[in-house]
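User:
Care to share a sequence and structure tokens?

Assistant:
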Amino acid sequence: MTGHVLFDPLLPLWALGLLAALALVFVGWAFWRRLSGWAFRGLAALVILAALAGPVLQRENRAPLSDIVLMLEDQSASQRLADRAATTETAAEALAARITARPNTELRRITVPDGAENAGTEMMTALSEALAEEPRARIAGIFALSDGHVHDMTRAPDLPAPLHLLHTGRETDWDRRLTVTGAPAFAILDEEIRLTLRIEDSGAVPASETGTAPLEISIDGAPPQRFDLRVGVTAELPLTLTHGGRNVIQITVPTAPGELTDRNNSAVVQINGVRDRLRVLLVSGEPHPGGRTWRNLLKSDASVDLVHFTILRPPEKQDGVPVSELSLIAFPTRELFMDKIEDFDLIIFDRYQRRGILPSLYLENVAMYVQTGGAVLVAAGPDFASADSIFRSPLGEVLPARPTARVIDAPFAPKVSDLGARHPVTNDLPQDGDWGRWLRQIEVEPGAGNVLMTGHDDLPLLVLERVGEGRVALLASDHAWLWARGYEGGGPQLELLRRLAHWMMGEPDLEEEALWAEATGRTMRIIRRSLSDTVGDVTITTPSGATETRPMQETRPGQFETRYTGPEIGLYRLANDDHEAVIGLGPAAPREFERTIVTDTVLAPLIETRQGGSFALEDGLPTLRAVREGRPAAGRGWMGITPRGAFETLDIARTALLPPWLTLLMSASLILLGWLREGRR
């Protein structure tokens, strides 16, 4: 029970002030006139003014409330290194027992897990939520059992009580960390690039581990390259990409004896391999409208270097004009088809027939060029069905179809075949099935190639085949240019020919048999593209070596997919039939393992605001003391909490100090005494 005096004026304060001033004037006038009763009249006025001020004695019946102590238990991934988890649990139980043993004290234990999406330790978020649920006036202390690495300090709240850090590290802890400070997003194939790396040691590094450290670099799971790098020095390492598309590069530093963890000893970098310049040789047998279509297509791509020659006059046309007057320079056929043929990524024969311009030896060399990894595309016209057809040359051994000598001069609408609906070159051409007609087709009989498009009477129109290490394609019509001119609405001529040319040059995105994955957070979307109707299960190998199989479901013609959520972060290997792929799921070194040596630097500004302390659990659990607010709350071997003395008011009673009857009696008595005093004089 407590009490104190309150005032509840019956008149406004300005009115009370005015009455007090008037009373002072009259009492002062009585004093100046030497009236003997001025003192009693002044006391009477004072009593009346006090009564008008409404003095009240308020008494409260209070119930004391207990103090609340918050204990934050960091259970993030970095707290599971070495024996930190056991140390934290033991210290938490001992501290909880000491706190609950104190009179009038309650404990709130708060678990701080790993943050979502590699957010790290979100201790301040957990603390803010806990403070929002408890009355701030009852918080007497805050204890954090952690390694000190907190990643959401921007959300730190205003603390109502001292904060103490009890860290779980040891003086002998040390760790090695790999960081990639520079890596290009794209790289030119077969050209050397530079990766900028750094190996850092922290903590109590043994003398035997100073100096240099080994490092391994592997591309797409291939045998690694090995280097020795100086610790603490930024280094640039050479690297050469050998294939186009995505290259997954894993960089690893072997685990050293005694270091805390190897989770930050590796990094995964993804670099897209691109060709510097694509060199294309276009050979036009004679001028025709489709020739400019090919030229415009290839010249529109800035990455293509085009060498184009057209045979304007065949040898049999002799009109007496000297050759020196027909051309400015002699065309270097031997240099192109013998000496530098390997420099070309694609050779296109557009309506070319044997006229003695290119000897059989040159065409035989082109066939060998295909076998060793080159690409040849034949756009056939009536020449392909003639006796001088390019098929009836050494090049015919690698072509995917043979002519029947029949030329069909009739309108037809090109269509994508069932197999073409599964092939990436033709599976999603725009405006599929609603295209303008072509007016001529060469009848061919396909061999082992894939027929992607058909024409008149479902005869093969576009045939693709792999020969040796190279690729060949045959377009059995010279009327693709009609689509470019918009004849009967036109068609996807530009898209079709561009895809065809890029497939010939080995574009990874157009491979008909491929396996890859796309990652979103911890979930990967595994994609298998195939010309087959079914594919086998995909085998997933996790970074720790465990394997798991998942069935593939067809989501569209020629494409099979499945989804997989990885149990850990790192490099995953995928295998399906005879195809393999790798993908990095999440960062190789999660945020929790960027820094592993304990520290009090991060929380130091928050600890200092309430004069808390930082203690190593390795030295034992400090004792608890009660300290007054504003005084230092930590010292050698002890940490303090601030009792708050909070209470709950149960009821309130008010009693007037000058009730009306008492005011009337006192004021009347004083006035009467003043009158009697003046009367006696």
